[in-house]
Amino acid sequence: MKQKTVIGNWKNYLNGVETIKLSKQIVGEKISDYIRLMISPCNLYLNEVNEIMKESSVEVIGQNITSYDSSSDTGGVTAIGLNDIGVNRSIIGHSEVRKRNKGFKSEDILKEIMPAQFKFILCFENTQQIPFNILNNDFEMILAYEPVWAIGTGETASIEHINEIHGSVKSELSKLNLDIPVLYGGSVNPNNSKEILSQELVDGVLVGGASTKYEDLHKIINSI
Ligand code: PEP
Fold it and tell me: SS3 of 28, please?
């Protein structure tokens, strides 16, 4: 079986005490070699969570970046700022970010961070949002199919639908000789994670709500 990636996107669901408690529970988990776990806490707690996870195999990642270098963007998050605190990867283009920032074009931020090899997970709701022409194999990048109607709604995409989208993305990637994992996100929970994670075309899952509850996350990472 190939290794699958599980990303827990904690969004802004947890306060500081809850974030630290959950991080300490997770760091005590025995994680199988078939699972690679990444956790994306709210920016406020990134440093503390990274400190807790530093001796573990759990990677702490950002939820968004707005520029590579320092900028005048109030409330923005820079890639070099994340690097500074030992965080070398971030989610980009989450549908909640796209909704806030109507002019969002992943190409703009990717052109800034890719030369610096800052790792990312690019979320897409449809294949037009994937800038195939600028992706490359020079360092690790990940794509995550996140149909907006499935995010936080309890309505998971069907296995047929997931396979259809992942199949078409993977076929485009292979035409370009690109080896980029494709994850699925949208109401993944302990009841559907086994089936989703066991699909050949699914390289992992991006989990929001369920990843903020220890029992659910524990079950998801132990479902394969
Ligand atoms: C997400 O935040 O990316 C997500 C998929 O959320 P949920 O699992 O709650 O649908």
Answer: coil
Cβ contacts of residue 175 below 8 Å, gap of 6+? none
* Dist. CA 187 → ligand 1 center (Å): 6
Q: What is the DSSP string of 179-207?
A: ---EEEESS--TTTHHHHHT-TT--EEEE
Segments of the chain assigned E as strands: 4-9, 35-40, 59-60, 89-92, 119-124, 141-145, 182-185, 204-207
Q: 3-state DSSP call for residue 145? A: strand
The CB of 208 under 6 Å from ligand 1? The reply is: yes
Told to judge if 161 belongs to the known catalytic residues of this protein, a careful annotator would answer no
Residues in the chain: 224
**pLDDT reading at 1 higher than 90:** no
Active-site annotation holder among 59, 96, 125, 146: 146
94 is catalytic: yes
- pTM exceeds cut of 0.90: yes
Counting residues of the chain whose pLDDT is more than 70, the rounded percentage is 100
